[in-house]
Design goal:
- The chain is built from seven helices and 20 strands.
- It is mostly beta strands.
- Strands 1-2-5-12-7-10-14 form a seven-stranded antiparallel sheet, with no helix packed on it. Strands 15, 16, 17, 18, 19 and 20 form a six-stranded antiparallel sheet that branches. A three-stranded antiparallel sheet has the order 9-8-11, with no helix packed on it.
- It has two domains: 222 residues, Jelly Rolls (Sandwich); 77 residues, Sandwich (Jelly Rolls), CATH 2.60.120.
- The model has no long low-confidence stretch (mean pLDDT 96).
- Keywords: Isomerase, Metal-binding, Zinc.
- This is Phosphohexomutase.
- One of its GO terms (molecular function) is isomerase activity.
């Protein structure tokens, strides 16, 4: 089987806080006014990505990995994770504030849920004026202070709020209390996990009149009460892979493409490109593939040499 750059059918998720920007900004085929997430590449149970292009169209990512594990995942990724795809890629549209939440680390997630933890990063694609994120505590806190403020509905007073703009990046290590604010579109890269402990949801009700479930007791042990700095600053040298994040779970680079650049990879890891602005062409083995803003493409590890050309802002993600 000759592998090639793979795109997938978006897995669209309605959310109480979702809107319509995934269609208007990122051209996703949403059918409701409360679509909050487009899962671009996923192997979470019951949400397995289906290939949308080429000769493998209609096959699931898990089926492909099962058949060609090393060629798709890479030698290092396969040695570390077996036939599991270790990352999840999403676009999010927050028409309203998301709940304030936290994700457990690998150890806690394994013990409680037999799952990976959920380290994630955010790249801000679009932000309305005065749009904000909540990331961590203003100062070092404690379980006692946290519970007191939660009970008094003053939790926001001890949380760190960041005004954001297009291109801002944040790393959310497990244990970091956080929330995406209204008016923001985000590209999210995370470990393959769907475990979230919701601690405060602004007392809002769903369509059925009920409030959403909270997980305060589970969150208490998962929270990191230290003051952290989650924002990352990075270079933007044209036609170059500028490193933004290099953590235990993934490496993310920013490529401001204006012209063309040659890419040379080893076979240790797959590579994913998320086009967050503009459009570009990928040329491999004499064949051209074209991508627009909002497209996500998986390059199997066996494909090591290709060219990117066009005018675009691209996130490049792999496991190093």
């Amino acid at each position: 089987m000759k592998l090639y750059p793979l795109q997938f059918e978006p897995i669209l998720k309605e959310r109480i806080w979702g809107g319509t920007k995934l269609k208007t900004y990122l051209n996703k085929p949403i059918t409701s006014d409360i679509t909050g997430e487009s899962w671009e590449i996923a192997t979470v149970e019951n949400d397995i990505s289906i290939i949308a292009n080429g000769t493998l169209k209609g096959k699931s990512l898990n089926e492909l990995i099962n058949e060609f594990p090393v060629s798709v995942l890479g030698t290092k990724v396969y040695a570390q994770f077996g036939k599991q795809f270790p990352l999840l890629f999403k676009y999010l549209d927050a028409r309203e504030d998301l709940s304030i939440q936290v994700h457990p680390n690998d150890e806690l997630a394994k013990k409680r849920h037999n799952s990976f933890g959920k380290t994630e990063m955010w790249y801000v694609i679009q932000a309305d004026s005065d749009a904000r994120l909540i990331v961590g505590f203003k100062e070092k806190s404690s379980p006692e202070e946290f519970i007191e403020n939660l009970n008094n509905k003053t939790l926001l007073s001890i949380l760190d709020t960041k005004k954001v703009k297009q291109g801002d990046v944040f790393i959310l290590n497990t244990g970091t209390i956080h929330a995406i604010g209204a008016g923001i579109i985000i590209a999210e890269i995370q470990q393959t996990s769907d475990i979230t402990y919701r601690v405060y949801d602004f007392d809002r009700k769903e369509a059925n009149g009920n409030t959403r479930e909270l997980h305060v007791n589970l969150a208490l042990e998962a929270l990191n009460y230290e003051k952290i700095e989650a924002q990352r600053f990075y270079s933007k040298t044209e036609n170059t892979s500028n490193e933004i994040i290099n953590c235990n779970y993934f490496t993310t680079n920013f490529i401001p493409l204006d012209g063309a650049t040659e890419i040379h990879k080893n076979e240790k890891s797959f590579t994913v490109y998320m086009c967050v602005e503009g459009s570009f062409q990928l040329t491999i083995d004499g064949k051209n593939y074209t991508y627009q803003k909002g497209n996500t493409v998986l390059i199997p590890a066996a494909l090591t040499d290709f060219q990117l050309s066009g005018k675009a802002s691209i996130l490049e993600i792999y496991i190093s």
